[in-house]
Amino acid sequence: MAKPRVHEIAKELGVPSKDLIAKLNQLGEYVKGPSSTLEAPVVRKAREAFPQTGTKPAAKPAAARPAAPKPAVKPAEQEEASAPRVSAPKPGPKPAPKPAAPAPAQTVDEQATSAAAAPAASEAPAAVADDAKPKGPTPADMPKPRPRPGGNNPFSDRTAGPRPRPRPGGNNPFQGPRTGGAPRPGGGAPRPGGAPRPGGAAPRPGQGFGPRPAAPAGGAGGPGGARGGRGGFGGPGGAAGAGGPGGPGGRPAPGGRGRGGGTAGAFGRQGGRPVRSRKSKRAKRAEYEQQQAPSIGGVQIPRGDGTTQIRLRRGATLSDFAEKIDVNPASLVTVLFHLGEMATATQSLDEDTFEALGVELGYKIQIVSPEDEDKELLEDFGLDLDAELEAETDEELEPRAPIVTVMGHVDHGKTRLLDAIRHADVISGEAGGITQHIGAYQVHHEHDGVTRAITFIDTPGHEAFTAMRARGAQVTDIAILVVAADDGVMPQTIEALNHAQAANVPIVVAVNKVDKEGANPDKIRQQLTEYNLVAEEWGGDTMFVDVSALKGQGIDELLQAVLLTADAGLDLRANPNKDARGVAVEAHLDKGRGAVATVLVNSGTLRVGDAIVAGTAHGRVRAMFDEHDNLVTEATPARPVLVIGLTSVPGAGDSFIVAEDDRTARQIAEKRAAAERAAQLAKRRKRISLEDFNKALEEGKVDTLNLIIKGDVSGAVEALEDALLQIDVGDEVDLRIIHRGVGAVTQNDVNLATVDNAIIIGFNVRPAERVQDMADREGVDMRFYSVIYRALEDVEASLKGMLKPEYEEKQVGAAEIMEIFRSSKFGNIAGCLVRSGAIKRNAKAKVVRGGTVIGEPTIDTLRRFKDDVTEVKDGFECGIGLGKFNDIQVGDIIETFEMVEIPRD
Ligand SMILES: Nc1nc2c(ncn2[C@@H]2O[C@H](COP(=O)(O)OP(=O)(O)OP(=O)(O)O)[C@@H](O)[C@H]2O)c(=O)[nH]1
């Protein structure tokens, strides 16, 4: 329905338009002229202002009528209608409302507002509607009738809660252009955006009418601002816009809704509602955080102060981080994106990424070490291994055998030495020698009349040693450093001794191959002094023993030296009377026996039937064997045994413990597996910078080489994986190991390779039956190796094949311009003599004058005499047309180029 115009209403009311306009203006409604349209509330006001002259009943007489008491026709209904808000009158025969005869204007005003906002109430009889106001004002504190600046706002409602958005409308001509909820102090010039003024925490420019949380603190206490606030435009925040206290002409009147002031604006919430001048703690905090929070990519995140520590486990996700700092993970995704990294909230990220994010946000990210993580995990199961060790008393500790690792440079005789030592075993000599390779063995040696055991880790080389250390397993007590007397100290000798020294493991030097001609044991002693290994006979504290692994010479002395070194500085004792704790030194999958692990007990005693967990493998000890293939029922500290009964193959260096029961063992294993998976995910993810990623996306390809590694023993698989991940191929190619495992290549592996487009690398394994056929059918590339570095070479080459080729310009020919022919058809033709190489048609060219390239045209036409040719060789004359490029002179050189691929090294 069209809105009525002033003159229509005036006619209806029987008053001149002029009077109506005057009346409405007096009531605070700005009405321009007789043809102005009027909003419904204003019409109501008009009718109420001239009630006696009305000729027609008002559209809603009930609401329009002043507080004229009307007997309640349906008391029950009225009660219901007003119930939620009522504190007041009971409808009854004496319907007079509490406020004793308020002035008509006031009543009209109040009714207009409450009726508009509360339709339910507006349907009710006027008395009830009026009474339904939140507070029944007593006559004493009733404001006097006054013009209500906001009165023409159809949405204005004093009783309604804050509305989320300002609603334009009404007759207010100022509402359009006004911005910022700016008050008009004293009706004067607009003050943009509630400029900051003392006493009012004025919002920043432009914030005046956003529904921002900071705004309510804006102190609507400035009455000067409030008074002119008719055009003010505040939603909940708009109120703050009115916060500039006392503009010119504005008198401070704390408390907001004072007389004649205090409404914020026609379209705002009644801004004059009392607002405490003091900010709430919450508001202050929000404000503080806003100041602190950096806005990266439009998200605001509370900053740390640069030292705020955040502990994250390996493979943590942005969600984990977000939880710690109590923000929405999506914000962190955004921040990371703006740092040039793409990641989802649930993707495991590596340490570097977290560090970068931490630096940006002022947090110090600490990735919990694997050891600590495992410690915490075990603590969840009531196992604190450190505390357990500390609590052990001297009486509980019993001597144990030293555990020795043999290290040294390649071909210096480590394997041969371990063989020789095995044969030197005084006990196995009688028992028929060591028959089984189990990854570690014990030999016995007579020392000071006592037969003592020494445990050797049967995996020579520092790789195994460091791999175990990397897993937090310090298995070795003493290192034997083998140096060939005919070769001297070599790079791996130094590496090995560095590793041993770093681990604080004492070294005994075995100077090997002394049987060889040209062997110079003293030279070795001399060389090693440089590395802080000074022979005892030279006044140092390192024992050097000359041996010949080949001939079995010096082995007894070497074992003697090991025992002496152990006795000199090591406290080799352990408590055998508790559940076993130790390390898995090697593991593999045996066809008949399933997962087989060689474990070395550190403390306690391992027994058949124990529930154990080793790394992520768990199970029950079904049987144990020693290096002589004898069944054993228990293993005491430093006793290596081969254990059968695990459900999967543990990794070399995984710690093992005896758990209370099978269930606990399984749970620990599962939790570890989950942690490891997360860590793997983080490790696997190679970074792609945003630019590269974008480019790759644009080109529709992200180069990723997916690999599946299968090997015979877990140690080899890990070694291969580590080495592969260390291949440096730059940022362009992504290398991912999507699956790894011990055992033959299976159909599952091929399936996985099909899905992820991966290549399968088998190390010392073969495909299971029918798997090769399946791989051929599916087009899956399987490669099998028995030497790690061959696998590495192939992968590296394959990666390089995938790299986008790099090109360089290679000059293929040069011709000197001897003469220039002008042709209207072809432009300038250069009559040339080919000076070197050959000039080919369509080749890229450079025109060089006095050593400077003046243009880079292409060879457009190439002629020998009258014939078009494709190539002219060194020493011949030719005519060259360079297309549109005509800036040539006699004496210029035309060089031609090809782009050739640069081989990668
Ligand atoms: N003459 C002589 N030759 C030895 C001696 N010890 C080892 N060799 C020879 O040296 C070569 C390398 O010996 P290995 O025991 O395989 O050496 P390694 O350090 O285990 O070598 P990698 O396993 O390749 O690191 C073999 O040919 C051995 O026969 C020795 O005491 N005297």
Automatic annotation (TrEMBL):
One of the record's GO molecular function terms: translation initiation factor activity
Membership in a protein family: Belongs to the TRAFAC class translation factor GTPase superfamily. Classic translation factor GTPase family. IF-2 subfamily.
GO CC, alphabetical: cytosol
Biased composition (Pro residues): 90-102
Localization (cell): Cytoplasm
Gene: infB
Lineage: Bacteria, Bacillati, Actinomycetota, Actinomycetes, Micrococcales
Name this polypeptide is given: Translation initiation factor IF-2
Binding annotation for GTP: 408-415, 458-462, 512-515
Disordered as annotated region, ranges: 32-305
Bias-annotated ranges (Basic residues): 275-284
Positions with biased composition (Low complexity): 56-75, 112-129, 168-182, 192-217
The keyword Cytoplasm is assigned to this record: yes
Tr-type G domain location: 399-573
Record keyword Zinc-finger present: no
Skewed-composition ranges (Gly residues): 218-271
Organism: Demequina capsici
InterPro entries: EF-G-like_DII, IF2_II, IF2_N, P-loop_NTPase, Small_GTP-bd, T_Tr_GTP-bd_dom, TF_IF2_bacterial-like, TIF_IF2
Functional summary from the UniProt entry: One of the essential components for the initiation of protein synthesis. Protects formylmethionyl-tRNA from spontaneous hydrolysis and promotes its binding to the 30S ribosomal subunits. Also involved in the hydrolysis of GTP during the formation of the 70S ribosomal complex.
Gene3D superfamilies (alphabetical): 1.10.10.2480, P-loop containing nucleotide triphosphate hydrolases, Translation factors, Translation initiation factor IF- 2, domain 3
